[in-house]
Amino acid sequence: MPRKNRAALLLAIILGTGLAATSTGVLANDIYENEAASSTTLTSADISDRQLAAFLDAAGHVQSIRSSYVEMIREAPAEERAELREGAVADMTTAIQFTGLDVETYRAIGYLFRNDPELRQRLNRVAAGR
Length: 130
Hints:
Mean pLDDT: 79
Number of strands: 0
Order of helices and strands: HHHHHH
Helix content: over 70%
Number of helices: 6
Radius of gyration: 15 Å
Strand content: under 5%
């Protein structure tokens, strides 16, 4: 698969699907229910290519963490689900911060990806260069 197609596929998986757990409602209470912020004061010009690369890394980690928790939460007794959700949120937050982003910036980039064609093109270029 050509690099550009892989980049587009990666971004579609990360952002376009909204992450599978959300559609099942399993992790509906976590801060990543809507991967992107509902608004942001940041603009495309405020986001560096290094932050875009970190976003891609963080989004991949968040997806992996979410996937690993979905079955555990789905199969856990009701009284254990809240604790598992909290663990998932903590793990996802740590994964985002490990890439050098804060959660607010991560979610802002997700918002801009969906709403700013310029940032979307830049993110595609960064992803294609990987």
